[in-house]
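Protein: VOC family protein
Species: Streptomyces beijiangensis
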Amino acid sequence: MAVRRVVPNIQSEAVEESRDFYGLLGFEEVMNHGWIMTMASPSHPAAQASFMTSDKTAPVTPDMSVEVDDVDAAYEVMRANGAEIVYPLQDEDWGVRRFFVRDPNGRVVNVLGHRL
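Structure follows.
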């Protein structure tokens, strides 16, 4: 299993203001579903930050997202090692397969892969 990118998820009620602010640093909006917006560096597209009011389908807002090349394998590794699964593995309407797991610091990590 390989990590493709790591994205901090910032819970915010100021999504538009965040777009303007981080735009001043050279970030551009690359995704916006209304409840989550992602900004990325045009020169280094994996350098990203997401801003979300709340998660659309999950019971909690994750602190970070980790995209992996095999989300099913990541899920099995976490389960086999007794990690706390906060949101079970499932396919979402917007094209990702994901689950949430709590890290040792109490942070919620959204582990995902894009469906082809």
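Remarks: The mean pLDDT is 94.
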